[in-house]
Amino acid sequence: MSERGTPAGAGAAREPLLSVQDLQKHFPVTKGLLKRQVGAVKAVDGISFDVVKGETLGLVGESGCGKTTTGRLITRLIEPTGGKISFEGHDITHMSQGRLRPLRRDMQMIFQDPYSSLNPRHTVGAIVGAPFRIQGIQTEQGTKKAVQEILEMVGLNPEHYNRYPHEFSGGQRQRIGIARTLALKPKLIIADEPVSALDVSIQAQVVNLLEDLQDELDLTYVVIAHDLSVVRHISDRVAVMYLGKIVELADRKSLYESPMHPYTNALLSAVPVPDVKRRKERDRIRLLGDVPSPLNPPPACRFHTRCWKAQEICSQVEPPLLALASGHQVACHFPENAPASGDAGKAPAATDGNGTQEEAAPGEGAPTSS
Amino acid sequence: MTAPLDPTAPAVVAAPSGLPAGTIQGRSLGQIAWMRLKRDKVAMGGAVVVVLLILIAIFAPVLVGWFGHPPNEFHQEMIDPSTMTPKGGTGISGDFLFGVEPLNGRDIFSRVLYGARISLLIAFFATLLSVVIGTVMGVVAGFFGGWVDTLISRAMDAFLAFPLLVFSLALIGVLAQFETSLAVKGDTLRILLLIFVIGFFNWPYIGRIIRGQTLSLREREFVDAARSLGARGPYILFREILPNLIAPVLIYATLLIPTNVLFEAALSFLGVGIPAPTATWGGMLSDAVKYYTVPHFMFFPGMAIFITVLAFNLFGDGLRDALDPKSSR
Q1: Whose CA is closest to B226, among A297, A346, A103, A181?
Q2: Rounded distance, CA B261 to CA B44, Å?
Q3: Which of A70, A124, A303, B106 has its CA at a distance of 20 to 30 angstroms from the CA of residue A118?
Q4: How far apart are CA B183 and CA B241, in angstroms?
Q5: Is residue B81 part of a domain?
Q6: Which pLDDT band holds residue A258 (cuts at 50, 70, 90)?
């Protein structure tokens, strides 16, 4: 991508294309004949972020942390429990599907599984032409011509118009899916694990295709992924999610080079290093235990049950998501890699109003390595 | 690659080469299933027999005109008056291909052919009724879910628990009392009644299958994709989900027909089918029981039922393998 690393400061000045505030989705857990609600799976529990035009926001996290739910909430495939989603200034949080229809042209979704996201009974032409049909859009030279142009744009043979999805490989199928999302020339594309179902060699092709299309069509992406390398490659900014919350949100460069949240550190240390020699050099942080159930998440900081830096305050006071450095937000009482100046250590302590935890700062290199 | 299609992959690749350069013709799943079906010799054998049976049923009067005698025509000259059994044991000859019935000497060949008409007519329309009700109910239950699903599923349970045989015996007995006051009478009434009884009480089998399929299809990502494009319910139902239900509906319809043939035969055998003198396979079997000394009387209608059921089942199994390769993987 040509304009890589849009500075967050410059981005903040612009009007965000998509703005998410304190978004929540609680799936009720019911029991018995009368469907009495006995609890709720807090899949997404109060996340906020902005996406400015032209940037790519990566959303990473482990399985079950709520990233896919977030994507589905933004595209309103599921109904939010709380919070607010605004897209281009429209509050779409609880907008009716009927009123949402015209807005859907500008907001599209790429799906994870290219084998499930294409109807096996429809031809490629019908699949890519579906957006025109559903939205009732007439194109100048007919839908077929428009579809063929899009197919060409995503690197498929326009002659494949009459073929069926089963005749294509996984990578080609994902291209068909991408072609469908591009049909209406959207502004925002939510890509839910766009490459995780593909072979690694094909992943690169598809990721590059996404980047080329962004340059060509001035797209804005929210890329949901669990693969940190993919996110690093494609994103301008990255949000790290843990158990339904954003724990760190930063520019790609600062997140990958100086991650602040212990969880981000642990995630990054788990990225495979292809070089055997360098592999020995790095410290691998092994998190103990499983991700706690979102049905009953730990109080305050949700990571404190697995965090090696956790202290008493972590289980009592929830750390707010604060900007510790320019464009680098983190929700932690004891952030690592805090900015060199003294204010980093004080910032979190000051916000939680608990001055006793002054040993916050030493953080560097403390992880229990193995 | 899609694994189930591997066997046909070379054919798919090879086919476009025969076409003029530049035109790439896709093969639909239906075309691929047809190619797969054509290679299945057993299923094709079943299909040929099925087609023959249908033709026989349609052209029964013509065939009987050529090779037999009217089905209800008595041929006392073929009967040995002392034993009331056919002369020479069976009466099979060039004139009476399958021999004659004991007692009144009716042509068994003609009666078996005419029996095919009743059997297939009832089986087809009862199946059609089951499929229509079952598909509609199954799709509605699966697509809308919630209390609609609960309601329909419980209705299916109730229908499956219904003592169908006893009910049909009772219903036909009761209706016979009112026969004079109804608009339709005689055989037509009985045929309609059998179609209704067999068809109306069999829908839960297909309904359950369709409900399950709809439930799983509804969660597929292409449905989400359509919804995220702003598609409304009817679009998703008719354009995204229903085309994927054609295969299971076809398969289970084909497999339901032989069951219905058997059920119709059983009802006729029990005397609640089409009343005499109209020829039905079940009715002939029922008559034949009294004449166990003349086994050919039982053999021909029995074979007719056997061949029909077997042919439909073989064809249905082949169709399933062709349309739904995952089931045999």
Answers
A1: A181
A2: 20
A3: A70
A4: 40
A5: yes
A6: confident
- Distance (Å, rounded) from C-alpha B197 to C-alpha B125? 11
Taking an 8 Å cut-off on Cβ atoms, the answer to whether B26 and A75 are in contact is no
**Structural domain contains residue B4:** no
CA distance A99 to chain B (A): 10
What is the 3 state secondary structure string of B224-259? HHHHHCCCCHHHHHHHHHHHHHHHHHHHHHHHHHHH
* Structural domain harbouring B62: 46-328
Q: What stretches in chain B show pLDDT beneath 50? A: 1-22, 328-329
Q: State the average pLDDT for chain A.
A: 82
Residue B14 contacts A, CB cutoff 8 Å: no
The angle subtended at Cα A60 by Cα A56 and Cα A65, nearest 5°, is 135
Q: What's the rounded Cα separation, in Å, for the pair B221 and B239?
A: 14
User: Do the chains contact at A164 and B29, CB–CB below 8 Å?
Assistant: yes
Query: Is beta strand A245-251 parallel, antiparallel or unpaired with respect to A237-242?
Result: antiparallel
Q: How far, rounded to the nearest angstrom, does the alpha carbon of residue B50 sit from its chain's CA centroid?
A: 10
Domain ranges of chain A: 8-248, 261-360
State how far the Cα of B283 lies from the Cα of B273, in Å rounded to an integer: 8
Chain-chain contact of B24 with A130 (C-beta, under 8 angstroms): no
In a domain, B107, yes or no: yes
> Are the CB atoms for A165 and A176 separated by under 8 Å?
yes
What string of DSSP letters covers B79-111?
Answer: EETTTTEETTSS--SSSSTT-B-TTT--BHHHH
Residue B29 inside a domain? The answer is: no
What is d(CA B281, CA B118) in angstroms, rounded to the nearest whole number? 8
Q: How many domains does chain B have?
A: 1
- Order the strands of the A188-192 sheet from edge to edge: A107-110, A188-192, A220-225, A56-60, A237-242, A245-251, A328-330, A322-325
Topology classification of domain A8-248? Rossmann fold (3.40.50)
Kindly provide the ipTM of the predicted complex, given to two decimals. 0.79
Asked if A135 lies within 8 A of B229 by C-beta distance, the reply is yes
CATH code at B184? 1.10.3720.10
Query: Taking the complete model, does pTM exceed 0.90, yes or no?
Result: no
Is B82 at the interface with chain A, CB within 8 A? no
CA A44 to chain centre: 12
CA gap A67, B88 in Å, rounded: 85
**B contacts of A108 (beta carbons < 8 Å):** 228-229
Paired tokens of A45: 């529990």
Q: Say yes or no: B227 contacts chain A, CB-CB below 8 A.
A: yes
Instruction: Tell me the residue ranges of DSSP E strands in chain B.
Output: 79-80, 85-86
